[in-house]
């Protein structure tokens, strides 16, 4: 009995020792993954803050003064109607040109926030328009219902496919490419081409920068922002494969913060009432 207990204790000790060794061996890998995730999140936050600063500059330093100047010119035109009517028409033409430029600025800002093709064509139609000219032939297929996707997931999918097809056009030397999307509990997408593939067959941190610039990194960041993932690999028969999975329940994302109610009221805008 004592010998059996001793053997059992020895086996248990060996098992525990093996489990501890395996756990200790996995720690460096977990540390690297955590550090990689933190770097990716830091880049995303920095990119969003940079985008906020760009929008603030465009609104406050460019669009704002343009509209204020147009308002002042309209007041000037009202006075001229009484004092010198002959000068009103040229001034109104100048105001119209300035307002047309302001409309263009607003349109550019709106396009930067969400690709207009998504609203005009839907995700599938927008991707088909991206595919034109990427290579000789691009097949686009969607398995499932492409409607009513979360806005953030839809934008992430669009940007990942756009970047992948840009790489097909610029770098792959591919004749054909395929874009496959499927929807069940999440949105999955794959962009595969028949080109020369990636250097060393994979796209880890060392391979992302030399040829692809920030584009390959950006695809992973678009996926990570909505809580998904993206991988870029070369396949055995030649060509590059971009695969992404994007959740349909998007967690709280880093987006443009709406103005607070007291900021509206401070600027003379009453708080809206909802029925």
From TrEMBL:
Domain Histidine kinase/HSP90-like ATPase: 154-249
Location of the region described as Disordered in the Swiss-Prot/TrEMBL record: 254-275
Source superkingdom: Bacteria
Enzyme class: transferase
EC number in record: 2.7.13.3
TM regions (residue ranges): none
Phosphoprotein recorded as keyword: yes
PANTHER family: NITRATE/NITRITE SENSOR PROTEIN NARX-RELATED, NITRATE_NITRITE SENSOR PROTEIN NARQ
Protein known as: histidine kinase
UniProt source species: Actinomadura fulvescens
